[in-house]
């Protein structure tokens, strides 16, 4: 990447941080996508539509998801250059637009989740700190549908006695309220009695908080303890289970969107595909034609 291109990328990322409130991880992802794209272009900032049209061939070995993400990063970048008067045109219409099907989320059924809770509760009954912490993690993952990053970065005072909601800072630094059950509140209270008083985090680890990688490992161990294949379970799978089981229980899709912190309801709508049996039952029992005699 040329010095001029690097200066444009830095300026773009400054805008994303200041105006869009992008997180450090998001900014790093944008920088990586733009740097990789620059490797296949004569110049990044001055690339023509013809230059961008050749990226499809250059990226032929990449997955559709990676191509889509890089194209989206470039579209945002060129839109910024146009808006700031750094270019007179936007060549991004020539970028590749791969088509791919969004995979259905992996889910656990209610029996699997029950087994995980039973195993975690049995271990926590010993009072061993790590076991109590793990049960609190499970309660918040499945009971509130938190993302892994949202969970591990909760401050020490996030869960307050008698307060049925907690404030979570999600993607794009957007705050939202999520419910917390009385069960989760009770387990977190037990865990707080075991946390060092000077800790800033609800789930401390060393000088900071528990990492996402460590959370992933803990969840897999809890799955194995319950007799469930560890590769079937992750923090995100438990979030999917929260959403799917709420939908099965009759939750409104817009409410679910709010609870999950999805910016676009299209992201939430994927959960309507994983509960087809309930949808068929609704049509057979609720549709006006269901009551007509043959």
Describe the SSE topology:
Elements: H1 3-18, H2 24-38, H3 49-53, H4 55-58, H5 64-83, H6 110-124, H7 129-144, H8 148-152, E1 165-169, E2 175-179, H9 182-192, E3 204-205, E4 208-209, H10 212-225, H11 235-248, H12 253-260, H13 265-268, H14 276-286
Antiparallel strand pairs: 1-2, 3-4
Helix pairs in contact: 1-2, 2-5, 6-7, 7-9, 7-11
Give a brief rundown of this model.
The chain has 294 residues and is mainly alpha-helical. The protein has two domains: 3-94, DNA polymerase, domain 1 (Orthogonal Bundle), CATH 1.10.150; 110-235, Orthogonal Bundle (hpI Integrase, Chain A). The chain has 14 helices and four strands.
Describe the fold and architecture:
With 294 residues, the chain is mostly helical. The protein has two domains: 3-94, Orthogonal Bundle (DNA polymerase, domain 1), CATH 1.10.150; 110-235, Intergrase catalytic core (hpI Integrase, Chain A), CATH 1.10.443. Helices cover 54% and strands 5% of the residues. The protein is built from 14 helices and four strands. The protein has helices spanning 3-18, 24-38, 49-53, 55-58, 64-83, 110-124, 129-144, 148-152, 182-192, 212-225, 235-248, 253-260, 265-268, 276-286; strands spanning 165-169, 175-179, 204-205, 208-209. The strands form two sheets. A two-stranded antiparallel ribbon has the order 1-2. Strands 3-4 form a two-stranded antiparallel ribbon. Helix 2 packs across helix 5 (64-83) and helix 6 runs antiparallel to helix 7.
